[in-house]
Design a protein that fits this description.
Layout lengths: L1 E7 L3 H12 L4 E4 L4 H6 L5 E2 L1 H9 L4 H6 L1 E3 L1 E6 L2 E6 H5 L4 E3 L2 H15 L3 E2 L2 E7 L7 E6 L2 E12 L17 E16 L8 E4 L6 E7 L2 E9 L9 H12 L12 E15 L2 E2 L2 E3 L5 E2 L7 H22 L3 H4 L1 H23 L7 H16 L1 H12 L5
Parallel strand pairs: 1-2, 1-11, 2-8, 5-13, 11-18
Antiparallel strand pairs: 3-7, 4-7, 5-6, 9-10, 10-11, 12-15, 12-16, 13-14, 14-15, 16-19, 17-18
Helix pairs in contact: 1-6, 1-8, 8-10, 11-12
Length: 391
């Protein structure tokens, strides 16, 4: 097989890249190790920045998002039983975010790719990226019980932290930056309407809590728990009781309860791999960087990476200049590090570290009070939450 761009991974990054390339008249092949059903039900992110939503619309993949997604114009911060709303449009010149699950983004992009785009091969396991440093990289993969080779002009690894793409960059050329956190998120899906019409981020002496949603009838909620927690160790009523404690306010707000349909625990880590390019191999999304979910940046960073690559490749084809492709890693990393900074700030602002002192507790409250009382501090949060510019 032969194509211009070989894409490893049919998550939102790989699928969006395939769509952007198709619209630009550039052929690609997408290899995905899982089957279609798995990709379309893989629960991950649910918050789309303004820029990500705009890119999906421009790519022709925003119709159902605009019909079924939930536009959010702010978030609520809770601390010391008080409530403070951050008004995104008022602070950012009109920007907002969209609540629309990654599963739905993938369904929309898969349907478009199968109807209009190039080959999308499910259950096609990438085994290795070969000759990445040359002008003719190759992806060795297994599909339908036999090994094959996809010859490419470029390879984009959208295959996540455990994928093969990053392993093709020589270790001597790389630098890794990472931090692990001593806590995780116990997440639940519940068949109950959300108890608030926007996301609620709560700082409590017992730990962080987040109220989110997947639809007007399905709530998504999270509790800070110790690292390594078994989700099955928490009973349903115990979860609701703890959520109620952490979201408690001094007014008449209350938390609606309902049947819990899913429990998972998400570990928390920050990770950046530099560079994001080697020869004609380009890394995108979790293959190059991971953020704790507090800042809602993972999917949006991946979208920024593939938009940057697609623009650079189109620029080269139109002008003959490789300037933007050569700058891919630097361009992406500027945005990545701002997202890492914001995600770290949100995590340390709202989570209580094991063994935290009274001094550290008061610093957290002082930081939150600063956001609630300073338009400049509030604007910084709103600008980061709604998204850093692509490219």
């Amino acid at each position: 097989m032969r194509t211009t761009v070989g894409i490893i991974g049919a998550g939102p990054a790989g699928l969006l890249l395939a769509r952007l390339l198709h619209n630009a008249g550039i052929d690609s092949v997408v290899l995905e190790s899982r089957d279609r059903a798995y990709v379309e039900r893989r629960q991950r992110a649910g918050i789309l920045e303004q820029g990500t939503a705009d890119v999906l619309r421009a790519a022709g993949a925003g119709e159902r998002m605009d019909r079924e997604g939930l536009r959010h114009d702010g978030i609520e911060l809770r601390f010391d039983r008080t409530r403070h709303r951050v008004d995104f449009p008022a602070l950012t010149g009109g920007r907002s975010v969209m609540v629309y699950a990654q599963t739905e983004v993938c369904k929309d992009l898969i349907a478009l790719q199968l109807r209009e785009g190039g080959p999308l091969l499910f259950e096609a396991e990438a085994l290795a990226v070969e000759d990445a440093g040359t002008d003719a990289p190759r992806i060795r993969f297994r599909h339908e019980g036999r090994e094959d080779v996809l010859e490419c002009s470029y390879v984009v690894g959208c295959d996540g932290f455990w994928g093969v793409a990053r392993k093709a960059i020589p270790a001597g050329l790389t630098q890794v930056f990472e931090r692990t956190y001593p806590f995780g998120w116990l997440g639940i899906l519940a068949d109950v309407p959300p108890s608030h019409d926007e996301l609620v981020y709560a700082r409590h002496e017992r730990g962080f809590a987040l109220l989110s949603m997947r639809s007007p009838a399905v709530s998504r909620l999270y509790l800070q728990v110790p690292d390594g927690t078994d989700p099955g160790a928490w009973g349903d009523e115990e979860i609701w009781d703890e959520l109620e404690r952490r979201f408690a306010t001094a007014d008449d707000w209350y938390l609606q309860r309902g049947p819990i349909t899913q429990k998972t625990v998400t570990p928390m880590r920050s990770y950046v791999h530099e560079p994001m390019r080697h020869g004609r191999l380009f890394l995108a999304g979790d293959a190059a960087h991971i953020v704790p979910p507090t800042g809602a940046k993972g999917l949006n960073l991946a979208a920024g990476d593939v938009v940057t690559f697609a623009r650079a490749l189109v620029h080269q084809q139109e002008t003959g200049s490789p300037e933007l492709l050569d700058a891919y890693s630097q361009t992406c990393l500027r945005r990545v590090w701002q997202a890492e900074r914001f995600s770290y700030d949100m995590t340390t602002l709202l989570h209580r570290a094991p063994g935290a002192t009274a001094f550290e507790d008061r610093l957290q409250l002082a930081r939150l009070e600063r956001i609630a009382s300073s338009r400049a501090a509030e604007t910084d949060l709103a600008e980061a939450y709604t998204g850093f510019p692509f490219g």
